Amino acid sequence: MAGKKFDYAPAPESRAVVDLQPAYGLFIGGEFVDPVDGRAFKTVSPATEEVLAEISEAGTRDVDRAVAAARRAYERVWSKLPARERGKYLFRIARILQERARELAVLESLDNGKPIRESRDVDIPLVAAWFFHYAGWADKLEYAGVSTASSGPPKPLGVAGQIIPWNFPLLMLAWKIAPALACGNTVVLKPAETTSLTALLFAEICQQADLPPGVVNIVTGAGETGRALVEHPGVDKIAFTGSTEVGKMIARSTAGTGKKVTLELGGKAANIVFDDAPVDQAVEGIVNGIFFNQGHVCCAGSRLLVQESAYDEVLTSLKRRLGTLRLGDPLDKNTDIGAINSPEQLGRIRELSDVGESEGAARWSPPCELPDKGFWFPPTIFTGVSQAHRIAREEIFGPVLSVLTFRTPAEAVEKANNTPYGLSAGVWTDKGSRILWMAGQLRAGVVWANTFNRFDPASPFGGYKESGFGREGGRHGLEAYLDV
Ligand code: NDP
Hints:
Helices cover 38% and strands 17% of the residues. By secondary structure, the chain is an alpha/beta fold. The chain has a seven-stranded mixed beta sheet with strand order 14-15-16-13-12-17-18, with helices on both faces. Strands 9-8-7-10-11-19 form a six-stranded mixed beta sheet, sandwiched between helices. It has a three-stranded mixed beta sheet with strand order 1-5-4, with no helix packed on it.
């Protein structure tokens, strides 16, 4: 059979498990309600451009209503419940998330464009794990190490305004809502304009779990809705994940207001491969680092730093591996690379890739047929990249890898840290002592050793410098929602 290539038969996941409604309201005070101004926008499948549903656009009066509902629920119910009762609700939500995992995974892939393999095996299991983890914390807050015997048990902040991006819609919701509720806060959450559907399904899950009305409120809309939430005087805490640009605006507009703020922003992580690393394993890690979720990952390993002596071997293996990646229908179980989330994001990836070429880097993609409809970008590698190139400095947020080289560990550290960001990094080497030394030198919130893009609810995540401040996950993540 030499030379004969077997093709894969299509293996689509069924959409029948999802009950899409033609239009969705806002989730305020435990019910779905129409927006005051009656405005709406459409959400499309990025893989086919099919209109999936109409989503309500919350205006300032709707944000007002949602904050008032959250305040009422905070004062009358949630802050008065014994902590273990709060925990029971969170455990119940976690179990329902597991029961409805398939429905959530299919809906996430439909609305976001990510491969079902990822939403099914990564996103949704982590979402449930996050709720289980924080459910367990609800009645153990005094042991979280954020309070002292004299300060008494830690207290919640009140109403949290939470704004999340489109790359991990339900997972970012879990990172925000689970710790907030465990600590006794109530929330108003704004999902991203292009990916509201799983947040609205989560609202249904809150109803199913009999969560007291107003504890979770979901206001859909665009940037203006987010701004209204950030600027609302009735909000005690803002938690934001998204671009550094909007993060800076939020920092400015909340300065001096007494609101507690945590920001999880962009990144330009270095994935550093030494010449003693196991090459096949490292190549898998490089692929996972930048092509997982189409590279729409704040901690993506978007800058590959390879030791010069291993460069040829690593690049040859990497190109061979990229040739086996399958791009296409996100609902097909064999798909590795799905659709780009929006035409705006596709435009940005194209623009920065063109800049890469015009600045002198060499562009390479494997032979790869792109579907006619929808928003697509092939897996792409740039070699001959210098530290001054824009593709080595700016977050592309797409399936585009910039390759640089180094000779010594000190040079690797210097290049890795030469960025305004500091969210994550990866180190691939056989030597344990080198891993520890590198981890101590890298200015990044998370350093992965011989792996990449690993997440665990018990482990804190967050950045240095322009990647933001505050930590999400684990015991550290509780501090963001407690008055300490
Ligand atoms: P944004 O930062 O604009 O979006 C993040 C969230 O903030 C969305 O819910 C958005 O709403 C909302 N938002 C937008 N403007 C405001 C505002 N003034 N006040 C409050 N909330 C606001 O990211 P984009 O989607 O525009 O993506 C742009 C770039 O940002 C990407 O190309 C990527 O490089 C980077 N990015 C990084 C992320 C990360 O996790 N590091 C995540 C997302 C983007 P809406 O989407 O509805 O407009």
